[in-house]
Amino acid sequence: MKKYSIITIICLFNFLTSISQVTCVVDNDSTNRIVICDEVTNFYIPTSTTKELTIKINFHFMLKGDTTLNFREFDDGLGDSTFTALDFSNTIVEIANARLAGGVAPNLPQGNSIPILNKKYRLILTGVFFHTDENNYTYQNANVNQLLTLYGNNVGHEVNIFWVYDNNSSGYAGGGKATMSGNRWLLIKAAWQKYRDYGNAGFWGDS
């Protein structure tokens, strides 16, 4: 199995965690009515009776006009057909869900008995899309409103995540940006570039 940038995973995980905390969701189960609507729910603590919530997400791989510079449907963007964008997508979501399901006990206070809780929400990958777009494949030039209009899937109800190339002349770096309300989206850069340059040996790097 290929290794994935831990920062890429954490970036995705943290963005989606934030989204889940400010989305208004009502569980109509009369035995356990849960309302998640605003910043107060940052203190939301799930219990054994809490109904599991889901966040539906879509991955969009933005490709240069010649269909390069990203993972592709049929290979890794470098000619390896044993590892495709679909493999990358499924593994990223699997790792994020594994992190949501558990955690690590805090070190402080020493000797604490704070339980490790299942967050009671998980990600569901509903679609993986590929777009050849000379104007929008880089982080620097991508127009998010245009991306949502042209390529967004179930905008306003599902989170659309666009994987783009970092064309910074000083060198690429991981990270991205997102909006947490309304038509929710993420723009994540340089994941493919880290894979291209470090592969199995160093993909736990800084992107």
Helical fraction? 25-40%
Major sheet strand order: 4-3-5-7-6
Please give the number of β-strands: 7
Rounded mean pLDDT is 80
Strand residue percentage:
15-25%
What is the makeup of the main sheet? Answer: 5 strands, mixed
Write down the overall geometry: globular
The rounded Rg comes to 18 Å
What kind of oligomer do you see? single chain
Task: Walk me through this protein's architecture.
It is a single chain. With 207 residues, this protein is of the alpha/beta class. It has one domain (6-44, 52-103, 118-202). Helix content is 26%, strand content 22%. It is built from 4 helices and 7 strands, in the order H-E-E-E-H-E-H-E-E-E-H. The strands form 2 sheets. Strands 4-3-5-7-6 form a 5-stranded mixed β-sheet, with helices on both faces. It has a two-stranded antiparallel sheet with strand order 1-2. Helix 1 crosses helix 2 (85-101). The longest helix is centred in the first third of the chain and has 17 residues, at 6-22. It is globular. The two termini are 19 Å apart. The model is unreliable at 19-41 and 201-207 (pLDDT under 50).
Structural key phrases:
207 residues; alpha/beta; 5-stranded mixed beta sheet; 4 helices; 7 strands; globular; disordered C terminus
Furnish the topology, listing elements before pairings.
Blueprint: H1 6-22, E1 25-27, E2 34-36, E3 53-63, H2 85-101, E4 121-132, H3 144-151, E5 159-164, E6 175-179, E7 185-189, H4 191-202
Parallel strand pairs: 3-4, 3-5, 5-7
Antiparallel strand pairs: 1-2, 6-7
Helix pairs in contact: 1-2
